[in-house]
Amino acid sequence: MFNPTQLPAAYKTGSQSPLDAKGYFADGADMLDVSNDRPLSWYIYMECTNMTDGKTYIWTESLTGLLPTSYKYPANVVSFGIDYSEKDFNFIEQGLFETSLDDSLVTPDKIGGIESGTTVASLKLLTDSQILANILFETVLAYILSNNSISLSGVTSQDLEVGTSVTPNVTVNYLKGSINNGDGTLAGDLTGDLNNLIINNPAAALAYAQATPVNNTDSTALPSFVIAHGANKWSVVGDYDAGTTTYKNNKNINGTNLAANQASGQSLADSGTKTGKYYRWHYLGTEGGSPTNSAGVRSLSDKEFLSLSNTGSFNVTIPSGAASAEFSLIIPAGKTILINDVGNLNLDITSEFTETNLNVNDANGDAVSYTIYTRVSGPTGYLNPTSFSILIS
What we know:
Elements: E1 24-25, H1 28-32, E2 46-50, E3 56-61, E4 71-72, E5 78-79, E6 82-83, E7 88-93, H2 120-123, H3 128-136, E8 143-146, E9 149-153, E10 158-161, E11 165-166, E12 169-175, E13 178-180, E14 186-189, E15 194-200, E16 206-210, E17 217-221, E18 225-226, E19 230-240, H4 259-262, E20 265-277, E21 279-285, H5 294-298, E22 303-305, E23 312-318, E24 326-332, E25 337-341, E26 347-348, E27 354-361, E28 367-376, E29 386-392
Parallel strand pairs: 1-2, 10-20
Antiparallel strand pairs: 2-3, 3-7, 4-7, 5-6, 8-13, 9-12, 11-18, 12-17, 13-14, 15-16, 15-19, 19-20, 21-22, 21-24, 23-29, 24-28, 25-26, 25-29, 27-28
């Protein structure tokens, strides 16, 4: 097969050089270098050593191995009767796991770092030492230390009268998130930078846009907005770039398990909530003093927000004398009331009140249908102090 040259005696090199230099490589990078069809001088089952770590390999036909992509020989390559033509070769580490078990057999349970369902075929690609290391030292993948997020600050949650005009000064901040390597050390940012943002007002209309946020933050004064009944929230939507951090498992091998989390995307957040509510007012005083128009109602100092369904309950202290001659309750139309005189046997006095419809302006000057319930106890009022228990439903 070969044409060997017989040496008359033992051959000794004159330096620290191997007899067959093809069997030794300076390091892993040297073994990966298949440029200029370097493998054309390599032969099947050629044994070689990595001089950096001492691992030994054979050069053989295989799609997998040390080379990320196997080397395919050109067409019409035949040497000493061996046909290499268009065959895929790779370096296979010596000492690989060997067994007569069928390649399709799988592990029934998880054993250390070897997952249940691992096939014999996949284990044959590992050395005995690698299998033992996987059993004893389970692989820990890189993981997300903190998720990416966007925030919209500057809108304080509070109850406001419907129709109130607000002009929020807001700040948007984007946090890129972070990745830890499998050994617990910091790898870097999860995502890239914020590259665009828009802020919508509570009516879902555009309030602000910024296509070039700097350093993942932006501040602005938003246009005035008139508070509506119910929850009023501003929202921000931010576009961010894909992350580029390279991360490793606890065995210092680059990972890909967080690729989907590193992809570009959008992050959303809401501001604090301005809750628009309606007032209920009441008048307590001399006879004939109840308000008869919107301005008179809004000038009353005794007021309180109702719930979002315009319901509520409260007590009112009723003094003796003329200061208790007339009592009026002003609430949004369409509600039911129950009023008890607590100091007088808790009598239900609801039927003693008269009803009058009245439009009362909200904080923006828009008319809202209200009902005023009025009871006159007489010019001299109550002889003794009492209190009213009031339920609005």
